[in-house]
Design goal:
With 251 residues, this protein is mainly alpha-helical. 76% of the residues lie in helices and 0% in strands. The chain is built from eight helices and no strands.
């Protein structure tokens, strides 16, 4: 059985990127809730109109496709940025891991506000939303969280977070394969989850065509994709441990 290093940059990048992207999406969900709350008269001054404009933009509306398209896009880009960080930035930056993460976060943040937001119709820096500095500040905060989480988990600290400490050859083999297979499981789970979500959306539209839990159909695809990635990572890790156990018994 082929061995893989527990510090393999590609496998660790996929796992770290998945967790960091998930943390970013959870923070985004909390931010959307805060925007909806503040848009209902809880903010005063010019900030009130900013929150109103952001709420009406569709980026925080579950019934519109823009929100769910953004979730899927940022999740995919989050995995790609994780590979870029581990292969191009991780060993070139200096300082504590959290500081490296913050520095690297400036790269995907600039890409987001200069490329992704205009593509989504929000204009450069999100100025077309007429929400003042809120899109810029919110995006910066989300990417800072993503960058710090990614940097910490992709470092040696991740050994104690995503796996148990190594104490012998058998444990090393088990963790090497568990991490690699978990990374494969995340990728496969994301693909299968997205496919299942699309099938369910088509079945639903062929039936009554009603909204799923009040959300746009893309919401179902986003939920099934993330769930598939999480389950795939879990199944992959157990599969890797099983392969390692069989290998150790044979030797």
């Amino acid at each position: 059985m082929r061995r893989y290093s527990a510090s393999d940059p590609f496998a660790r990048a996929l796992l770290s990127g998945f967790i960091a992207s998930t943390a970013m999406q959870l923070a985004f969900a909390l931010g959307c809730s805060a925007v909806l709350l503040l848009a209902n008269g809880q903010a005063a001054g010019p900030a009130s109109s900013w929150f109103q404009s952001l709420r009406n933009s569709g980026l925080v509306d579950l019934t519109r496709p823009a929100l769910h398209q953004a979730i899927g896009l940022y999740f995919l880009v989050g995995l790609l940025w994780a590979v870029v960080y581990t292969h191009m930035f991780q060993h070139r930056l200096s300082g504590p891991q959290w500081e490296r993460g913050l520095l690297f976060a400036c790269v995907p943040w600039l890409f987001s506000v200069l490329v992704l937001l205009p593509v989504a119709g929000a204009g450069p820096l999100g100025l077309a939303l007429a929400a003042g500095p809120l899109p810029l500040i919110g995006s910066l905060a989300l990417h800072a969280l993503y960058g710090v989480t990614l940097a910490v988990l992709s470092s040696s600290f991740g050994d104690g977070v995503m796996a148990r400490p190594r104490s012998g050859e058998a444990q090393v083999i088990a963790l090497q394969n568990a991490e690699f297979c978990a990374a494969l499981g995340v990728v496969g789970g994301l693909a299968l989850g997205a496919g299942l979500g699309l099938v369910l959306v088509n079945v639903n539209q062929a039936g009554n065509g009603s909204a799923w839990l009040g959300m746009h159909p893309f919401g179902l695809v986003a939920a099934s994709t993330v769930t598939g990635g999480a389950l795939g990572g879990l199944v992959g890790s157990f599969f890797g441990l099983g392969r390692a156990e069989a290998y150790v018994k044979r030797t």
